[in-house]
User: Fold Galactose binding from Halocaridina rubra.
Amino acid sequence: MQNAEENENIISMSPVNDVWILVEDSAAENQWVNKVTGQSVNYTNWNAVEPNGGTNENCVILTQSRKWEDYPCSARFSYVCERSLSSFKDD
Assistant:
């Protein structure tokens, strides 16, 4: 998740209410990183009282209210994956 536009695109494409967005702070509390790249997240869009789960909630969902909430990583939600356009090229 890099910006507000990407945040909106995910909401508009999602057929379900809340989705995992592959952001976590499992390695260091309140150091939110992209779970795939390990890079720090520069854009955030937390709900008013979030993040509030401490070490019990280390993963992030994007809600239909367009805000982020931290949740236990063991919770079950749909997820969003990002793919590069080159992965769709014709063979």
